[in-house]
Amino acid sequence: MLVAAGLLVAFVLVVLLGRPGMRQCRWREDRSAGVDGTLWRCAACGASTPGARGRPPRRCLKGDTA
Ligand SMILES: [Zn+2]
Predict the structure, then answer these.
(1) Residue 23 pLDDT greater than 50, yes or no
(2) In a 10 Å sphere around its CB, with 0-12 CB exposed, 13-18 middle and 19+ buried, how is residue 66 labelled?
(3) Within a 10 A sphere around the Cβ of 51, how many other Cβ atoms?
(4) Is the model's pLDDT at 60 over the cut of 70?
(5) What's the whole-number average pLDDT of the chain?
(6) What pLDDT band is residue 22 in, cutting at 50, 70 and 90?
């Protein structure tokens, strides 16, 4: 019975975390690509945007063509 409960919990977590728009963006700084400032790349959705160093974008830019 514990196994069934564990599977149910895991299934719920997968559904909740897998929903579009609920994924957390993971911004990574790429200083080699930026001429002025830095280039931020999202490891979750692959979006990239220029910005200031040490200050990652707050929202996901997936779908935007910057
Ligand atoms: Zn993203």
Answers:
(1) yes
(2) exposed
(3) 16
(4) yes
(5) 78
(6) very low
- Among 63, 32, 25, smallest CA distance to 50 is for 32
Between CA 20 and CA 2 the distance in angstroms is 30
Planar angle of CA 17, 60, 53, nearest 5 degrees? 125
Distance 8 CA to ligand 1 centre (A): 28
Whether 28 shows a pLDDT value over 50: the answer reads yes
Taking the centre of ligand 1 as the mean of its atom positions, its distance from the CA of residue 48, in whole angstroms, is: 8
Q: Could you report how far apart the first and last alpha carbons of the chain are, in Å?
A: 51
CA of 44 to the centre of ligand 1 (A): 5
